[in-house]
Amino acid sequence: QVQLVESGGGLVQAGGSLRLSCAASGRTLSNYVMGWFRQAPGKEREFVAHITWRGGILYADSVKGRFTISRDNAKNMVYLQMNSLKPEDTAVYYCAARPTGLLDWNYWGQGTQVTASS
């Protein structure tokens, strides 16, 4: 089992920055893909970014150039640096994990609220 706990959410003005952190426990993150998803009120959960064990990265088009995902394998941590935040980035952000080679995201955190005010 993998337990994931997000932190770092909050309220920021549009154009501002926030850094989300995800702490993993239960087992090492080796061979796990780590991802960030978000869900805005009344909308479905959507993919934001993921990073593989070896550092391969994929971003949603909506955040490309503004968000940066990173991981510290030694500390079992994953981060999401969010710059130039827009009101449409407002959502609950979730950290997730899946074994490399599989498609289902098996493990999820409880989420952290990010609000970018206009």
Itemize the secondary structure elements and their pairings.
Elements: E1 3-7, E2 10-13, E3 18-25, E4 32-39, E5 46-51, E6 57-59, E7 67-72, E8 77-82, E9 91-99, E10 107-108, E11 112-117
Parallel strand pairs: 2-11
Antiparallel strand pairs: 1-3, 3-8, 4-5, 4-9, 5-6, 7-8, 9-10, 9-11
Mean pLDDT: 95
* β-sheet strand percentage: over 45%
Low-confidence stretches: none
Q: Give helix and strand order, one letter per element, not per position.
A: EEEEEEEEEEE
Number of helices, where a helix is a run of at least 4 consecutive DSSP H or I residues: 0
Total number of strands: 11
Q: How far from one another are the termini?
A: 40 Å
- Biggest sheet character: 7 strands, mixed
Spatial shape = globular
Rg for CA atoms: 13 Å
Structural class: mainly beta
Give the helix level as a range of percent.
under 10%
Gist of the model:
With 118 residues, the chain is an all-beta fold. Helix content is 0%, strand content 53%.
List keywords for this structure.
single chain; 118 residues; mainly beta; seven-stranded mixed β-sheet; four-stranded antiparallel β-sheet; 11 strands; globular
Molecular structure report:
The protein has 118 residues and is an all-beta fold. It has strands at residues 3-7, 10-13, 18-25, 32-39, 46-51, 57-59, 67-72, 77-82, 91-99, 107-108, 112-117. Strands 2, 4, 5, 6, 9, 10 and 11 form a seven-stranded mixed sheet that branches. Strands 1-3-8-7 form a four-stranded antiparallel sheet, with no helix packed on it.
